[in-house]
Write a structure and sequence with these properties.
The complex is a heterodimer of chains A (266) and B (272).
Chain A lengths: L19 H24 L11 H12 L2 H34 L1 H15 L7 H8 L3 H25 L3 H9 L4 H36 L7 H10 L3 H29 L4
Helix pairs in contact in A: 2-10, 3-4, 3-6, 3-8, 3-9, 4-6, 5-6, 6-8, 7-8, 8-10, 9-10
Chain B lengths: L1 H8 L16 E11 L4 E12 L4 E5 L6 H9 L6 E6 L2 E2 L7 E4 L11 H5 L1 H5 L4 H14 L15 H14 L4 E5 L7 H18 L2 E6 L2 H7 L2 E6 L4 E7 L14 H15 L1
Parallel strand pairs in B: 3-8, 3-9, 6-7, 7-8
Antiparallel strand pairs in B: 1-2, 1-4, 4-5, 9-10
Helix pairs in contact in B: 5-6, 6-7, 8-9
Chain lengths: 266, 272
C-alpha cells in the first residue's frame, strides 16, 4: 500500500447527493436521449412514418389540435371524468381508510374484502359496469372510482397505522379522549403522507380514464386516441398520449406544490 | 412583535405561578404486572408498594428490564396492571388523563404545530379561551427561554430544545403529577446537565409532583428528594434513599460528600 498516492474519490457514489445543476442537466440529457432515439428512428426512415411520425410532425399536430375547440372539449370532459371518479374515491375512501387504520375492529371489517377486491383487475369490471350504469358518464366515473378506491382505502389505513403511538399517548396524557385524539393527532399527522398517496392514485386515475374512454364513448382524450387509430393517424395518437402525460404531470406538480405550501412542518 | 408581547407580559410575569395545583399524591399498593405468552408468564413488576408525596420529586432508578418504565406507564394509565391498587389523591387511576402529564424519552412534540401551539395543546383541549392560552404559552416560553422560537416547528429545534418544549407542554396543562420517562436519555452530556438545572428551576416554580425515571445515577441524585432503586427479574423495589442535599442544587453539588456517598451506595446496590 503506497500511502502517498491519493486518488480522487469516484464521482458516482452510492446515495451521494449531487447539486441541483448536475441533477437538472442529467434530467435534460435523459429527455434529449429519448428525443434523439426517436429522431434517429424516424428521420432515417428506419421505421415507417405511418407507425412512427417524426417529432416535428407530432409537434405541428399538437398545435393544430390545440387550436381547435373540439380538442379542448375532449380535454375538458376527460378532466371532468378523472376528477369526479378520483374525488368520489377520496370522499368515501379516506374516512374508511382512517377508520380501518385506527380501530382493529374497523380493520377486521373493512380490510379483508378490500384486499380481495383490489386484486381483481378494474378493467374486468367494465362489462359489469356497462350492465349497471350503461355507457353514460357514470360508467366512466365508476370505473375510475373502482380503480382507485380499494387501493386508496388500504393505503390510507396503512398510513394511519404508522402514526407514532407516542404522539397518541402524548395527547392522551394531555387530556384528549379517543375522538379528540383522532381529530387533533391522527388526522393532522397523516396529512403529508396522504397527499403523497393521493398524488400516486391520481396518476392511476388517468390510466383508468383512458381504459374507460376506449369503450363506447364519443368524447374525451381516450376517444380521440381511438379515433386516430382507426384512421391510422399515428401523429394524433402521439399527441393524445403526450397531452395526457402533460395533464398528469401538471396535476402531480400541483399536488407537490400544495404539499410544500400546506405542510411546511413535514 | 414587541408591542404585542409587552402588553401581554403585564399579566404573564414569570414569577406568578398559579396556585391551582392541588395535591398530586400517588399511592401504589401491591402492584403486579405479568405478561402472559403462549406457555410462559413473565413478571415485569412484583408487589410494588410506593407512596409519592405531594410536590415530591421522586426518581426511580434501575437496570434495563427492571420494569421502571412499565411502572411509569401504568401510573400514566397507558398500561394496565394485572393486580394491586393505584390511586391519585385517593381516586383510583383508570386510563390516561390530563392530571397526569407525561414527558417521553423520544420526541413527541406534534410536528404540525408550532412551539407555541404545542404548549397550548392541553389548555386548548380544556377550552381555555385564546387570550388566556396566550398568557400561559408566553409564560412557559419565557421559562424555557425559547420565546424567539414560538413560531418555529419542532423539526427546526435541537433535541434539547424539543424536550424543553415537551416539558412546557406537559406543565402548561397544570397536571397534578408530571411523569418523566428518561426524558434526557437521548441528549448529549452537556445538554443533559443544562436540562437538569432547568427542570429543577421549573419544578421549584410550578411545584408539582414529579415521578422521574432514569438509569443515570448522577441525574437521579442531582434532581431528586427521594430515590427508589429497582431490581430486575422480577421487577421490584430494592431500596429507597432520602437525598439529604441542600434544596437549592447547583452544578458543584456533584462534588458534595453526601452526593458521592449516596452515589457509591447506589452503585453498589445496582452491581448485585
Amino acid at each position: 500500500m503506497a500511502g502517498n498516492i491519493r486518488r480522487k474519490p469516484h464521482k458516482i457514489q452510492i446515495f451521494k447527493e449531487i447539486g441541483t445543476r448536475a441533477f437538472s442537466l442529467t434530467a435534460i440529457m435523459s429527455f434529449v436521449t429519448l428525443l434523439g432515439v426517436w429522431s434517429l428512428l424516424s428521420y432515417t426512415h428506419a421505421v415507417n412514418s405511418t407507425f412512427l411520425p417524426a417529432p416535428h410532425e407530432v409537434l405541428i399536430e399538437l398545435f393544430t389540435l390545440l387550436g381547435t375547440g373540439d380538442y379542448w372539449h375532449h380535454i375538458g370532459i376527460s378532466i371532468f371524468r378523472v376528477s369526479s371518479g378520483f374525488l368520489l374515491a377520496c370522499l368515501i375512501g379516506i374516512p374508511l381508510g382512517i377508520l380501518a387504520g385506527t380501530f382493529k375492529y374497523g380493520e377486521a371489517f373493512i380490510e379483508p374484502p378490500m384486499e380481495f377486491i383490489r386484486y381483481m383487475p378494474a378493467v374486468a369490471f367494465i362489462p359489469l359496469i356497462m350492465v349497471w350504469a350503461g355507457i353514460g358518464e357514470w360508467a366512466k366515473i365508476l370505473l375510475i372510482f373502482i380503480g382507485c378506491f380499494f387501493q386508496l382505502v388500504l393505503m390510507v389505513a396503512d398510513i394511519t397505522r404508522r402514526v407514532p403511538h407516542d404522539l397518541l399517548h402524548a395527547s392522551f396524557t394531555l387530556g384528549a379522549g379517543r375522538l379528540k385524539a383522532i381529530e387533533t393527532v391522527l388526522i393532522p399527522a397523516i396529512r403529508p403522507q396522504l397527499m403523497h398517496t393521493l398524488r400516486l392514485i391520481l396518476g392511476w386515475a388517468w390510466t383508468y380514464l383512458v381504459v374507460a374512454e376506449l369503450v363506447a364513448v364519443n368524447s374525451g382524450l381516450g376517444y380521440a386516441i381511438m379515433k386516430a387509430q382507426r384512421f391510422l393517424n399515428t401523429d394524433q395518437i402521439f399527441v393524445g398520449i403526450i397531452v395526457i402525460g402533460l395533464l398528469g404531470l401538471i396535476s402531480d406538480r400541483i399536488f407537490a406544490f400544495l404539499n410544500r405550501r400546506w405542510f411546511p412542518w413535514a | 412583535m414587541s408591542a404585542e408581547l409587552s402588553l401581554r407580559e403585564t399579566y404573564t410575569e414569570v414569577g406568578d405561578a398559579p396556585s391551582t395545583y392541588t395535591n398530586g399524591q400517588i399511592e401504589i399498593r401491591g402492584l403486579h404486572k405479568t405478561y402472559e405468552t403462549k406457555n410462559k408468564s413473565f413478571t415485569a413488576l412484583e408487589n410494588i408498594d410506593l407512596n409519592i408525596k405531594e410536590n415530591e420529586f421522586l426518581t426511580i432508578i434501575g437496570p434495563s428490564g427492571c420494569g421502571k418504565s412499565t411502572l411509569l406507564r401504568i401510573v400514566a394509565g397507558l398500561d394496565e396492571a394485572t393486580g394491586g391498587e393505584l390511586t391519585l389523591d385517593n381516586e383510583p387511576i383508570v386510563g390516561p388523563g390530563a392530571e397526569r402529564g407525561m414527558v417521553f424519552q423520544g420526541y413527541t412534540l406534534f410536528p404540525w404545530l408550532t412551539v407555541r401551539e404545542n404548549i397550548e395543546y392541553g389548555p386548548k383541549l380544556k377550552g381555555i379561551p385564546t387570550l388566556e392560552r396566550r398568557g400561559i404559552s408566553n409564560r412557559f416560553l419565557k421559562i424555557i427561554r425559547l420565546e424567539s422560537f414560538a413560531k418555529s416547528y419542532p423539526k427546526e429545534l435541537s433535541g434539547g430544545m424539543k424536550q424543553r418544549v415537551a416539558i412546557a407542554r406537559a406543565l402548561a396543562n397544570q397536571p397534578k403529577v408530571l411523569l418523566m420517562d428518561e426524558p434526557f436519555g437521548a441528549l448529549d452530556a452537556q445538554t443533559k446537565l443544562e436540562m437538569q438545572e432547568m427542570l429543577l428551576d421549573v419544578w421549584e416554580r410550578e411545584k408539582t409532583t414529579v415521578l422521574f425515571i432514569t438509569h443515570d445515577i448522577d441525574e437521579a441524585i442531582f434532581l431528586s428528594q427521594r430515590i427508589v432503586v429497582m431490581g430486575a427479574n422480577p421487577g421490584r423495589i430494592l431500596k429507597q434513599f432520602e437525598v439529604k442535599l441542600p434544596e437549592k442544587r447547583t452544578a458543584n453539588i456533584r462534588e458534595h460528600r453526601a452526593f458521592l456517598e449516596l452515589k457509591h451506595e447506589i452503585v453498589g446496590l445496582l452491581q448485585h
